[in-house]
User: Which sequence fits this backbone?
Protein backbone atom coordinates (compact mmCIF):
# COMPACT_ATOMS: atom_id res chain seq x y z
CA UNK A 1 0.00 0.00 0.00
CA UNK A 2 2.86 2.35 0.87
CA UNK A 3 4.45 1.72 -2.55
CA UNK A 4 1.18 2.65 -4.29
CA UNK A 5 1.00 5.84 -2.23
CA UNK A 6 4.54 6.83 -3.30
CA UNK A 7 3.72 6.13 -6.95
CA UNK A 8 0.61 8.29 -6.65
CA UNK A 9 2.65 11.12 -5.14
CA UNK A 10 5.19 10.89 -7.97
CA UNK A 11 2.46 11.15 -10.56
CA UNK A 12 0.82 14.07 -8.78
CA UNK A 13 4.15 15.92 -8.51
CA UNK A 14 4.79 15.39 -12.20
CA UNK A 15 1.32 16.66 -13.15
CA UNK A 16 1.68 19.75 -10.95
CA UNK A 17 5.12 20.53 -12.40
CA UNK A 18 3.89 20.33 -15.98
CA UNK A 19 0.87 22.50 -15.14
CA UNK A 20 3.19 25.18 -13.72
CA UNK A 21 5.35 25.10 -16.85
CA UNK A 22 2.50 25.14 -19.36
CA UNK A 23 2.38 28.91 -19.96
CA UNK A 24 5.94 29.97 -19.16
CA UNK A 25 8.80 30.45 -21.62
CA UNK A 26 11.31 27.90 -20.33
CA UNK A 27 15.08 28.38 -20.25
CA UNK A 28 17.73 25.71 -19.84
CA UNK A 29 20.99 27.04 -18.39
CA UNK A 30 24.00 24.70 -18.56
CA UNK A 31 27.26 25.02 -16.65
CA UNK A 32 30.81 24.16 -17.61
CA UNK A 33 32.49 20.96 -16.47
CA UNK A 34 34.39 19.30 -19.33
CA UNK A 35 33.41 15.70 -19.91
CA UNK A 36 31.15 15.93 -16.84
CA UNK A 37 28.62 17.34 -19.27
CA UNK A 38 27.49 13.70 -19.31
CA UNK A 39 25.50 14.47 -16.14
CA UNK A 40 23.83 17.39 -17.93
CA UNK A 41 22.88 15.11 -20.83
CA UNK A 42 21.11 12.79 -18.38
CA UNK A 43 19.21 15.65 -16.76
CA UNK A 44 18.16 16.93 -20.17
CA UNK A 45 17.02 13.47 -21.23
CA UNK A 46 14.63 13.49 -18.28
CA UNK A 47 13.41 17.03 -19.03
CA UNK A 48 12.86 16.29 -22.72
CA UNK A 49 11.99 12.61 -22.66
CA UNK A 50 9.97 12.03 -19.52
CA UNK A 51 8.50 15.49 -18.87
CA UNK A 52 8.28 16.57 -22.51
CA UNK A 53 9.59 20.07 -21.69
CA UNK A 54 10.97 22.14 -24.56
CA UNK A 55 12.98 25.31 -23.93
CA UNK A 56 12.55 28.63 -25.69
CA UNK A 57 15.90 29.86 -24.31
CA UNK A 58 19.26 28.09 -24.03
CA UNK A 59 22.33 29.51 -22.29
CA UNK A 60 25.58 27.59 -21.81
CA UNK A 61 29.19 27.95 -20.82
CA UNK A 62 32.10 25.65 -21.74
CA UNK A 63 30.73 22.14 -22.31
CA UNK A 64 27.33 23.65 -21.57
CA UNK A 65 27.82 25.82 -24.66
CA UNK A 66 28.29 22.74 -26.84
CA UNK A 67 25.22 21.08 -25.38
CA UNK A 68 23.09 24.24 -25.61
CA UNK A 69 24.13 24.80 -29.22
CA UNK A 70 23.13 21.28 -30.21
CA UNK A 71 19.74 21.59 -28.55
CA UNK A 72 19.22 25.00 -30.19
CA UNK A 73 19.03 23.22 -33.56
CA UNK A 74 15.52 22.23 -32.55
CA UNK A 75 13.59 19.23 -33.88
CA UNK A 76 12.17 18.47 -37.31
CA UNK A 77 8.83 16.66 -37.14
CA UNK A 78 8.81 15.94 -40.88
CA UNK A 79 12.11 14.06 -40.89
CA UNK A 80 11.95 12.84 -37.31
CA UNK A 81 15.26 14.51 -36.47
CA UNK A 82 15.50 15.08 -32.70
CA UNK A 83 18.28 17.28 -31.29
CA UNK A 84 18.16 15.56 -27.89
CA UNK A 85 18.60 12.13 -29.48
CA UNK A 86 21.54 13.41 -31.53
CA UNK A 87 23.10 15.01 -28.44
CA UNK A 88 22.88 11.81 -26.43
CA UNK A 89 24.29 9.82 -29.36
CA UNK A 90 27.34 12.09 -29.41
CA UNK A 91 28.05 11.43 -25.74
CA UNK A 92 27.39 7.71 -25.87
CA UNK A 93 29.63 7.52 -28.93
CA UNK A 94 32.69 8.80 -27.05
CA UNK A 95 35.05 5.87 -26.53
CA UNK A 96 38.32 7.26 -25.13
CA UNK A 97 40.06 10.45 -24.04
CA UNK A 98 41.32 10.93 -27.58
CA UNK A 99 37.73 11.68 -28.57
CA UNK A 100 37.98 14.83 -26.44
CA UNK A 101 41.63 15.91 -26.21
CA UNK A 102 45.19 15.21 -27.32
CA UNK A 103 48.34 15.94 -25.33
CA UNK A 104 50.75 18.57 -26.62
CA UNK A 105 54.18 17.27 -27.83
CA UNK A 106 56.09 18.85 -24.93
CA UNK A 107 53.90 17.01 -22.40
CA UNK A 108 54.37 13.73 -24.26
CA UNK A 109 58.11 14.32 -24.06
CA UNK A 110 58.00 14.91 -20.31
CA UNK A 111 55.82 11.86 -19.77
CA UNK A 112 58.38 9.75 -21.59
CA UNK A 113 61.16 10.63 -19.14
CA UNK A 114 61.61 7.94 -16.51
CA UNK A 115 61.95 10.17 -13.45
CA UNK A 116 59.09 12.43 -14.47
CA UNK A 117 56.79 9.56 -15.41
CA UNK A 118 57.45 7.73 -12.13
CA UNK A 119 56.68 10.81 -10.05
CA UNK A 120 53.61 11.57 -12.14
CA UNK A 121 52.17 8.11 -11.60
CA UNK A 122 52.78 8.44 -7.89
CA UNK A 123 50.84 11.70 -7.75
CA UNK A 124 47.95 10.65 -10.01
CA UNK A 125 45.58 9.88 -7.18
CA UNK A 126 46.31 12.92 -5.04
CA UNK A 127 43.17 14.81 -6.03
CA UNK A 128 39.73 13.54 -6.93
CA UNK A 129 37.98 16.69 -8.09
CA UNK A 130 37.14 17.69 -11.65
CA UNK A 131 40.16 18.31 -13.84
CA UNK A 132 42.36 17.02 -11.02
CA UNK A 133 44.98 15.38 -13.19
CA UNK A 134 45.69 18.64 -15.02
CA UNK A 135 46.33 20.23 -11.63
CA UNK A 136 48.76 17.44 -10.72
CA UNK A 137 50.70 18.14 -13.92
CA UNK A 138 50.79 21.87 -13.14
CA UNK A 139 52.09 21.18 -9.65
CA UNK A 140 54.80 18.87 -10.98
CA UNK A 141 55.88 21.51 -13.49
CA UNK A 142 56.37 23.97 -10.66
CA UNK A 143 58.51 21.50 -8.75
CA UNK A 144 60.64 20.71 -11.80
CA UNK A 145 61.25 24.43 -12.38
CA UNK A 146 62.60 24.67 -8.81
CA UNK A 147 64.60 21.41 -8.97
CA UNK A 148 65.30 20.35 -12.58
CA UNK A 149 66.01 16.62 -12.96
CA UNK A 150 69.14 15.35 -14.66
CA UNK A 151 67.31 13.37 -17.32
CA UNK A 152 67.97 13.39 -21.05
CA UNK A 153 65.50 15.60 -22.88
CA UNK A 154 63.58 16.83 -19.84
CA UNK A 155 65.12 20.30 -19.81
CA UNK A 156 64.41 20.79 -23.52
CA UNK A 157 60.83 19.67 -23.01
CA UNK A 158 60.52 22.04 -20.06
CA UNK A 159 61.70 24.96 -22.18
CA UNK A 160 58.97 24.06 -24.67
CA UNK A 161 56.48 23.89 -21.80
CA UNK A 162 57.30 27.44 -20.77
CA UNK A 163 56.41 28.61 -24.30
CA UNK A 164 53.30 26.44 -24.60
CA UNK A 165 49.76 27.79 -24.60
CA UNK A 166 48.21 24.73 -22.97
CA UNK A 167 48.64 21.20 -21.64
CA UNK A 168 46.34 19.73 -24.30
CA UNK A 169 44.86 20.58 -27.66
CA UNK A 170 41.18 20.24 -28.42
CA UNK A 171 41.29 19.05 -32.03
CA UNK A 172 38.76 16.26 -31.26
CA UNK A 173 36.30 18.77 -29.78
CA UNK A 174 36.80 21.05 -32.78
CA UNK A 175 35.95 18.10 -35.02
CA UNK A 176 32.72 17.47 -33.08
CA UNK A 177 31.77 21.15 -33.28
CA UNK A 178 32.51 21.25 -37.01
CA UNK A 179 30.63 18.08 -37.95
CA UNK A 180 27.85 17.90 -35.35
CA UNK A 181 26.71 21.51 -34.90
CA UNK A 182 24.72 23.40 -37.53
CA UNK A 183 24.44 27.18 -37.06
CA UNK A 184 21.99 27.16 -39.98
CA UNK A 185 19.59 24.89 -38.09
CA UNK A 186 20.02 27.00 -34.94
CA UNK A 187 19.15 30.15 -36.89
CA UNK A 188 16.08 28.48 -38.37
CA UNK A 189 14.80 27.05 -35.07
CA UNK A 190 13.67 30.36 -33.59
CA UNK A 191 15.18 29.50 -30.20
CA UNK A 192 17.15 32.06 -28.20
CA UNK A 193 20.75 30.92 -27.71
CA UNK A 194 23.69 32.42 -25.85
CA UNK A 195 27.13 30.94 -25.15
CA UNK A 196 29.64 32.62 -22.85
CA UNK A 197 33.37 33.27 -23.35
CA UNK A 198 35.93 35.58 -21.71
CA UNK A 199 38.34 37.85 -23.60
CA UNK A 200 41.91 37.67 -22.35
CA UNK A 201 42.61 41.16 -23.70
CA UNK A 202 39.72 42.98 -22.02
CA UNK A 203 39.00 40.47 -19.29
CA UNK A 204 35.28 40.84 -20.07
CA UNK A 205 32.63 38.16 -20.26
CA UNK A 206 30.88 38.14 -23.63
CA UNK A 207 27.89 36.21 -24.90
CA UNK A 208 27.49 35.11 -28.51
CA UNK A 209 24.32 34.02 -30.31
CA UNK A 210 23.90 31.62 -33.25
CA UNK A 211 24.31 34.51 -35.68
CA UNK A 212 27.74 35.40 -34.26
CA UNK A 213 26.51 38.60 -32.61
CA UNK A 214 28.42 39.53 -29.44
CA UNK A 215 26.65 40.79 -26.30
CA UNK A 216 27.89 42.42 -23.12
CA UNK A 217 27.31 40.80 -19.76
CA UNK A 218 24.11 42.82 -19.28
CA UNK A 219 22.69 41.37 -22.50
CA UNK A 220 23.16 44.48 -24.66
CA UNK A 221 24.34 43.85 -28.23
CA UNK A 222 27.84 45.16 -28.94
CA UNK A 223 28.63 47.27 -31.99
CA UNK A 224 31.40 44.96 -33.19
CA UNK A 225 31.93 42.64 -36.12
CA UNK A 226 30.16 39.29 -35.91
CA UNK A 227 32.23 36.16 -35.36
CA UNK A 228 31.85 32.59 -36.69
CA UNK A 229 29.56 30.84 -34.24
CA UNK A 230 31.53 27.60 -34.22
CA UNK A 231 34.59 29.63 -33.12
CA UNK A 232 32.50 31.01 -30.26
CA UNK A 233 31.62 27.50 -29.07
CA UNK A 234 35.29 26.46 -29.17
CA UNK A 235 36.24 29.63 -27.28
CA UNK A 236 33.61 28.93 -24.63
CA UNK A 237 35.00 25.41 -24.11
CA UNK A 238 38.68 26.45 -23.98
CA UNK A 239 39.50 25.77 -20.32
CA UNK A 240 42.50 28.03 -19.52
CA UNK A 241 45.87 26.25 -19.25
CA UNK A 242 44.23 22.93 -20.19
CA UNK A 243 43.29 24.11 -23.71
CA UNK A 244 44.66 27.00 -25.81
CA UNK A 245 42.81 30.32 -26.17
CA UNK A 246 40.72 30.80 -29.31
CA UNK A 247 41.37 33.81 -31.58
CA UNK A 248 38.09 35.49 -32.45
CA UNK A 249 37.14 39.02 -33.50
CA UNK A 250 40.64 40.38 -32.99
CA UNK A 251 40.91 39.04 -29.41
CA UNK A 252 41.71 35.75 -27.69
CA UNK A 253 38.97 34.03 -25.75
CA UNK A 254 38.82 31.31 -23.10
CA UNK A 255 36.16 29.39 -21.19
CA UNK A 256 33.22 31.51 -20.06
CA UNK A 257 33.45 29.70 -16.73
CA UNK A 258 36.44 31.88 -15.83
CA UNK A 259 33.87 34.53 -14.86
CA UNK A 260 30.58 32.61 -14.82
CA UNK A 261 30.51 28.85 -14.40
CA UNK A 262 26.71 28.74 -14.36
CA UNK A 263 25.41 31.55 -16.67
CA UNK A 264 22.12 31.92 -14.88
CA UNK A 265 21.92 35.70 -14.37
CA UNK A 266 21.53 36.48 -18.08
CA UNK A 267 18.54 34.16 -18.49
CA UNK A 268 17.03 35.44 -15.25
CA UNK A 269 17.44 39.16 -15.88
CA UNK A 270 17.52 39.74 -19.63
CA UNK A 271 16.05 36.99 -21.82
CA UNK A 272 12.45 36.83 -20.66
CA UNK A 273 12.45 33.36 -19.14
CA UNK A 274 9.37 32.43 -17.16
CA UNK A 275 11.05 29.45 -15.52
CA UNK A 276 14.70 28.39 -15.61
CA UNK A 277 16.12 24.91 -15.19
CA UNK A 278 19.79 25.40 -14.29
CA UNK A 279 21.97 22.30 -14.55
CA UNK A 280 25.39 22.08 -12.89
CA UNK A 281 27.79 19.47 -14.28
CA UNK A 282 29.91 18.81 -11.19
CA UNK A 283 29.34 18.58 -7.45
CA UNK A 284 30.33 21.67 -5.43
CA UNK A 285 33.09 21.31 -2.86
CA UNK A 286 36.87 20.87 -2.75
CA UNK A 287 38.94 17.97 -1.51
CA UNK A 288 40.54 18.51 1.87
CA UNK A 289 44.29 19.02 2.14
CA UNK A 290 45.79 16.99 4.96
CA UNK A 291 48.43 19.61 5.76
CA UNK A 292 49.15 22.92 4.01
CA UNK A 293 52.19 23.68 6.17
CA UNK A 294 54.70 22.08 3.81
CA UNK A 295 53.13 23.39 0.61
CA UNK A 296 55.01 25.87 -1.55
CA UNK A 297 54.01 29.03 -3.42
CA UNK A 298 52.97 27.19 -6.57
CA UNK A 299 50.78 24.75 -4.62
CA UNK A 300 49.06 27.48 -2.66
CA UNK A 301 48.41 29.58 -5.78
CA UNK A 302 46.94 26.58 -7.57
CA UNK A 303 44.85 25.62 -4.56
CA UNK A 304 43.29 29.07 -4.33
CA UNK A 305 42.90 29.79 -8.06
CA UNK A 306 41.93 26.33 -9.35
CA UNK A 307 40.08 24.81 -6.37
CA UNK A 308 38.72 27.28 -3.82
CA UNK A 309 37.93 30.33 -5.98
CA UNK A 310 35.95 28.44 -8.68
CA UNK A 311 34.05 26.54 -6.00
CA UNK A 312 33.10 29.79 -4.27
CA UNK A 313 31.99 31.29 -7.59
CA UNK A 314 29.81 28.27 -8.32
CA UNK A 315 28.24 28.31 -4.87
CA UNK A 316 27.26 31.97 -5.24
CA UNK A 317 25.81 31.32 -8.68
CA UNK A 318 23.77 28.38 -7.44
CA UNK A 319 22.50 30.20 -4.35
CA UNK A 320 23.03 33.99 -4.37
CA UNK A 321 22.45 35.88 -1.08
CA UNK A 322 18.86 36.82 -1.98
CA UNK A 323 18.12 33.55 -3.74
CA UNK A 324 16.61 33.01 -7.19
CA UNK A 325 13.04 32.46 -6.06
CA UNK A 326 10.50 30.09 -7.59
CA UNK A 327 11.49 30.98 -11.15
CA UNK A 328 14.65 28.87 -10.92
CA UNK A 329 15.16 25.16 -10.34
CA UNK A 330 18.80 24.15 -9.89
CA UNK A 331 19.83 20.53 -10.44
CA UNK A 332 23.24 19.67 -8.96
CA UNK A 333 24.96 16.28 -8.63
CA UNK A 334 25.87 15.05 -5.17
CA UNK A 335 28.76 12.98 -6.50
CA UNK A 336 31.08 13.25 -9.52
CA UNK A 337 30.94 9.97 -11.43
CA UNK A 338 34.12 10.91 -13.33
CA UNK A 339 36.38 13.93 -13.59
CA UNK A 340 36.33 16.67 -16.22
CA UNK A 341 39.00 15.13 -18.46
CA UNK A 342 37.93 11.48 -18.37
CA UNK A 343 36.18 9.76 -21.25
CA UNK A 344 35.27 6.20 -20.30
CA UNK A 345 32.14 4.71 -21.94
CA UNK A 346 30.97 2.91 -18.80
CA UNK A 347 31.38 5.98 -16.59
CA UNK A 348 29.80 8.25 -19.21
CA UNK A 349 26.76 5.95 -19.27
CA UNK A 350 26.62 5.86 -15.47
CA UNK A 351 26.79 9.66 -15.31
CA UNK A 352 24.01 10.09 -17.89
CA UNK A 353 21.76 7.70 -15.96
CA UNK A 354 22.64 9.46 -12.70
CA UNK A 355 21.69 12.81 -14.21
CA UNK A 356 18.33 11.39 -15.33
CA UNK A 357 17.45 10.02 -11.90
CA UNK A 358 18.87 13.00 -10.01
CA UNK A 359 16.66 15.30 -12.11
CA UNK A 360 13.61 13.20 -11.20
CA UNK A 361 14.52 13.33 -7.51
CA UNK A 362 14.83 17.13 -7.54
CA UNK A 363 11.90 18.00 -9.79
CA UNK A 364 9.47 15.58 -8.17
CA UNK A 365 10.68 16.55 -4.69
CA UNK A 366 11.38 12.96 -3.69
CA UNK A 367 12.46 12.05 -0.18
CA UNK A 368 15.99 12.26 1.20
CA UNK A 369 15.99 8.47 1.41
CA UNK A 370 15.21 8.17 -2.30
CA UNK A 371 17.90 10.73 -3.16
CA UNK A 372 20.40 8.67 -1.19
CA UNK A 373 19.43 5.56 -3.17
CA UNK A 374 20.09 7.50 -6.40
CA UNK A 375 23.51 8.62 -5.21
CA UNK A 376 24.41 5.13 -4.02
CA UNK A 377 23.47 3.72 -7.44
CA UNK A 378 26.01 6.10 -8.99
CA UNK A 379 28.68 5.21 -6.43
CA UNK A 380 28.08 1.50 -6.96
CA UNK A 381 28.50 1.87 -10.71
CA UNK A 382 31.77 3.74 -10.10
CA UNK A 383 33.02 0.87 -7.93
CA UNK A 384 31.79 -1.64 -10.50
CA UNK A 385 33.78 0.09 -13.23
CA UNK A 386 36.87 0.05 -10.99
CA UNK A 387 36.70 -3.76 -10.79
CA UNK A 388 37.11 -4.01 -14.57
CA UNK A 389 40.57 -2.52 -14.93
CA UNK A 390 42.35 0.85 -14.95
CA UNK A 391 40.68 3.97 -16.29
CA UNK A 392 42.77 5.99 -18.72
CA UNK A 393 43.16 9.64 -17.78
CA UNK A 394 45.62 12.39 -18.55
CA UNK A 395 48.20 10.08 -16.95
CA UNK A 396 47.22 7.16 -19.17
CA UNK A 397 46.21 4.05 -17.23
CA UNK A 398 46.92 5.44 -13.77
CA UNK A 399 43.40 5.91 -12.37
CA UNK A 400 42.07 3.07 -10.21
CA UNK A 401 44.94 0.87 -11.38
CA UNK A 402 44.86 -1.42 -8.32
CA UNK A 403 43.78 -4.99 -9.04
CA UNK A 404 40.22 -5.75 -7.92
CA UNK A 405 39.61 -8.27 -5.15
CA UNK A 406 38.24 -11.65 -6.25
CA UNK A 407 34.46 -11.57 -6.45
CA UNK A 408 34.26 -7.77 -6.26
CA UNK A 409 32.45 -7.42 -9.59
CA UNK A 410 29.76 -9.94 -8.62
CA UNK A 411 29.22 -8.26 -5.26
CA UNK A 412 28.84 -4.83 -6.85
CA UNK A 413 26.43 -6.19 -9.46
CA UNK A 414 24.33 -7.70 -6.68
CA UNK A 415 24.36 -4.39 -4.80
CA UNK A 416 23.38 -2.49 -7.95
CA UNK A 417 20.50 -4.87 -8.68
CA UNK A 418 19.19 -4.43 -5.14
CA UNK A 419 19.37 -0.62 -5.33
CA UNK A 420 17.64 -0.51 -8.71
CA UNK A 421 14.90 -2.78 -7.42
CA UNK A 422 14.44 -0.48 -4.42
CA UNK A 423 14.07 2.54 -6.69
CA UNK A 424 11.75 0.72 -9.06
CA UNK A 425 9.44 -0.38 -6.25
CA UNK A 426 9.37 3.15 -4.81
CA UNK A 427 7.71 4.41 -7.98
CA UNK A 428 10.57 6.78 -8.80
CA UNK A 429 11.57 6.98 -12.50
CA UNK A 430 14.44 4.73 -13.61
CA UNK A 431 16.78 5.82 -16.37
CA UNK A 432 16.17 4.13 -19.75
CA UNK A 433 18.23 1.02 -20.49
CA UNK A 434 19.68 -1.52 -18.07
CA UNK A 435 21.28 1.09 -15.74
CA UNK A 436 24.59 -0.76 -15.79
CA UNK A 437 23.28 -4.30 -15.39
CA UNK A 438 23.97 -6.72 -18.20
CA UNK A 439 20.75 -8.50 -19.13
CA UNK A 440 22.51 -11.86 -18.96
CA UNK A 441 23.65 -11.20 -15.38
CA UNK A 442 20.99 -9.68 -13.15
CA UNK A 443 17.87 -8.60 -15.06
CA UNK A 444 15.60 -5.95 -13.57
CA UNK A 445 11.94 -6.27 -14.48
CA UNK A 446 10.35 -2.89 -15.09
CA UNK A 447 6.84 -1.77 -14.37
CA UNK A 448 5.97 -0.02 -17.65
CA UNK A 449 3.20 1.98 -15.98
CA UNK A 450 5.69 3.53 -13.55
CA UNK A 451 8.89 3.91 -15.57
CA UNK A 452 7.71 4.70 -19.10
CA UNK A 453 7.23 8.34 -20.18
CA UNK A 454 3.69 9.46 -19.53
CA UNK A 455 1.56 12.04 -21.31
Assistant:
Amino acid sequence: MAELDVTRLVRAARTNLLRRMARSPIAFVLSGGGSQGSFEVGVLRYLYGDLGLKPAILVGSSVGAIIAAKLAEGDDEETGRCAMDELEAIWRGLRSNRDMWLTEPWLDKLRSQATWASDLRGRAGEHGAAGSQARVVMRMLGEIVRNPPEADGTIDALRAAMRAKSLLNMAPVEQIVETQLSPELMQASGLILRVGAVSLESGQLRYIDQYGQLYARDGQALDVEKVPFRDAVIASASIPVVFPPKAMGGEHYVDGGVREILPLALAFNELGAGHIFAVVASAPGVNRWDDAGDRGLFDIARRVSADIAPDETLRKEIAPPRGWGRRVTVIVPEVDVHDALTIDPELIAASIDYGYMRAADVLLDLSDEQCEVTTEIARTRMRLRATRGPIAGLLEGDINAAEAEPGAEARELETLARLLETRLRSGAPLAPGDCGLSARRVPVERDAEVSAPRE
Observations:
- Residues 121-131, 439-455 have pLDDT under 50 and may be disordered.
